[in-house]
Amino acid sequence: MARRTKEEAEQTRHAILLAALDLFCEKGYSKTTFDEIAKRINFTKGAVYWHFRNKPDLLIAIIREAITQSQNYMRAKVPHVGNIEELKKYFLTLAELISRHQEFRKFMFFALYQMEWSETIYKKATKSLEDIIDIPFKLLKETLTNMQKSGEIPASIETNKTSEMFICFWKGAIGQEITKSANYSFVDFVSYGFDNIICHNLKLEEK
Fold this sequence. Notes:
single chain; mainly alpha; elongated
């Protein structure tokens, strides 16, 4: 019986997170109330407060849930990244996740376009946000640096600049995908960008 109660509590918590994310996307963070979240899933406001003390706690839980799910997905699809081929596979897989998984796509839309970031809220969410924003950049930079140390790519390559150039492209491409302002395949576009920024840059340095 206790196990069932625990499972039901987890199901309730997850339902609250989904309802909150839906409303945050529709109305924005500041205009959404716990009453509205409860009504969306036919719960009492007390049930929402039982799981989350306030909206900042709820926001951080949504961010952490998105990070956990995305990281689990990526580890299963790309367990190791140590060369250019694996690095490209990582970004194409992440592009697939953003393009095809509605819940994560919805989270990205909310975080980029519907969240009104105040200084107080941003400070509370900074660590969680850094995780989801910085992981691709860190992985890219570390992979190129390690390849440089092992002699796979020349020492003359500026790995920081190369990484930053691609991440700038990556963030812009995500924005176009999330707002549906592009009329091409997101995965194909990321592949094209990777080849022309990362691979082409390496070829230029090798000449």
